[in-house]
Amino acid sequence: MPSSSPVRNGGDQAAAAMVEGRRKAAGRLAGVLLLLRLAALCFAVAAAVFAATDGAALRLAPFRFLLAANAIVAVYSAFEVAAAAWEVARGATLLPEAMQLWFDFGHDQGFGYMAVAAAAAAAREAATCGHGGGGGMSSAACLQGGIAVGLGFAGFASLAAAALASGYRLACFLATGSRSPASPSSSHY
């Protein structure tokens, strides 16, 4: 009587291929998230440095808010870069998987909104800077403030893209129980 074992029917090979496909997809998405988080870190640090290096701009509350928000985003992004690098290197999340996914998704959104609020508040001051509304700032300070605002918006864009990717990973986790997308061959139908 012939045996219908999974090895004979290729079941183990198909399962191994499916697991390998999921692992590769998760690795690619983790690599993209690492790059987005690294970009957010660089933009936030640069925006904070540009906002902090001119004392005239720091006399205005929106630029102090821009400095503080980008410094906070930079610290958060540094932690997330380390966590993403850990995930790329080890293939596992730093925290338990469900906790890491919810942490990333929620904090990416929260810090992203803080970054865009600070950049928007400082953008208003930077727009009126050269027209007598800048609190007596020099043209160099106005330019530096404008650059800090632009870098703040770029940091927000990186965080928004990371929030989109972490939201996708969370949706995959809620739908399949894994942070990587289900492979097309995993359907039972």
TrEMBL record:
Localisation: Cell membrane
Keyword terms of this UniProt record: Cell membrane, Membrane, Transmembrane, Transmembrane helix
Cross-referenced Pfam families: CASP_dom (PF04535)
Residue ranges crossing the lipid bilayer per the database entry: 29-53, 65-86, 147-171
A GO-annotated cellular component: plasma membrane
Record's bilayer topology term: Multi-pass membrane protein
Superkingdom field: Eukaryota
Tagged with keyword Secreted: no
Domain Casparian strip membrane protein: 29-157
Stretches assigned to coiled coil: none
Family: Belongs to the Casparian strip membrane proteins (CASP) family.
Oligomer and partners: Homodimer and heterodimers.
Protein name: CASP-like protein
